[in-house]
Amino acid sequence: MKGIATKILLLTLISSLIIACSDDDNTVNSEGVATGQIYATFQIIADGDDYVYAEAQLTDGIPPLNAEDEATFVQLVGNDELWLSAGEDLREVDISDDIFGGFSDLEDTQAPFKSATRRRESYDFLFSRVIINELGTWYSARLPESEEREYHISLFRDRDDGTTARDSIVTLPESFNVTSPASGERISRSGDDIVVQWSNADSASSIEVEANTTCQGSSFDSVSISDNIDAGMLTISAGVLDSELLSGNCSTTLNVRKIRVGQFDSKFIGGAVNGYQIRRIVFISEP
Amino acid sequence: MNKIFRTSLAAIAATFMVAEVSQAEGIFHLDAGLGVVQVSSGGFEGGYVVDPAIAYEDGLVYRVGALAIRDLRSSSGSDKSETEIEVSAIYFGISKALDIKRLKAEVGGGVMFSNAQAYYYDEKVGEDSETSPYLNVKFIFDLTKFLSIQTDWKYIDDISGGDFHVLEAGVRFSF
Q1: Please, are residues A284 and A54 in contact by the beta-carbon 8 Å criterion?
Q2: What residues 17-76 of chain B have any CB closer than 8 A to a CB of chain A?
Q3: pTM of the entire structure?
């Protein structure tokens, strides 16, 4: 009798272990989720190199970073695919007139999202703007940066064209450079107004400037300033960067972000589509 | 038509005029070839070709064939493995057969009706139909009265913007 009880206990433990290992309960395959049930989170970033980077996360009904309930992440399976397109989306593309020549343009304007595990460094500078939950299934794609600034993110679902969601759109803010302060400049945290200036002021974008200061001994402080209108400049008043956490000469990384908010496809239950241009410079901040 | 094609057609015509007509009665050939393809424009490479044909030889060789080109991919770009062009074609040709003991050569040309389809990550992004002239040189080596081996070169002038060189090896059944 004791032997049978031990075996039953052992079997129960093994079964529990198998279930625990095989059933990732915060992920669901896309074939079991209707488009109208999906919350779509998309963000597109250009950080000054030659590419535009995109991240996508699909969740079941609620945003991926939800304070009240834990999100269930949708994993794309079968013929369900996400695509990033500069300009017209993949299913509008027709290179019939020039089949051999048309492919090069296609490779510059169309890219499939692939399952991702590691963020691009520039995403680390989004801080409060992060809308993707790294702990869940998410996807990334990239395209060469071009003149085209309107990006489509399309969810293609071959099983039923009616559930395909092709109309999530965001226009990336215009490319720009930070013209002031200069990289490596020495600026007093307590005594100098820091006038941050950049090129290509874009009235349709909002602006955020974030200054992250790191000193010897790893002491750190961060200050953010934002403006709903991109006027081409923003001033961090003297003393704003000063903090009792910081001492001596420190390294301050200034992240200037331009943001445009896009529109998610109405077939989704909800969503967020953001486009960012990010630039950063590093200067020396003195007491 | 480009210069190569015009020059080659002239050479074929000259061949027809000077070659002696030696065939007494007609023979049917079933040709089957497998080969590789190179596109002289457009940055594409690789690809294989399947080329079955039936021909009737009576001094001249009259041929009807089908050509399938698959797995033709872009030779540049980060997503080159995800681009593919497929070409399906039928062709009608006429050649002059020249006998050199057990080796036979055929020189000719014809017209090809093709349909090219372009795929990007398996998504169809273009389709084009074209009528193209082609040149053909074939060498046949008789193994038996009924069975031969052969090599075949075709130059196809402009399928959807690309000029094709097709090189094949295959067999021939004659009856």
Answers
A1: no
A2: 39, 41-44, 74, 76
A3: 0.74
Q: Are strands B83-100 and B27-39 parallel, antiparallel or unpaired?
A: unpaired
Q: Which residues contact B102 (CB under 8 A, 6 or more apart)?
A: B141, B142
Nearest Cα residue in chain B from A83: B121
A61: left (phi over 0), alpha (psi -120 to 50) or beta: left
Q: Does A101 touch chain B (CB under 8 A)?
A: yes
Burial B93-110 (b: 16+ CB within 10 A, else e): bbbbbeeeeeebebbbbb
**pLDDT, tens digit (0-9, with 9 covering 90-100), for A198-256:** 999 988 999 999 999 999 887 889 898 988 999 999 999 999 999 888 888 999 999 99
> What's chain A's Rg over C-alpha atoms?
24
Cα distance between residue A22 and residue A19, in whole Å: 5
- Pick from A195, A255, A216, A204: nearest CA to A48: A255
Indicate if ipTM > 0.85: no
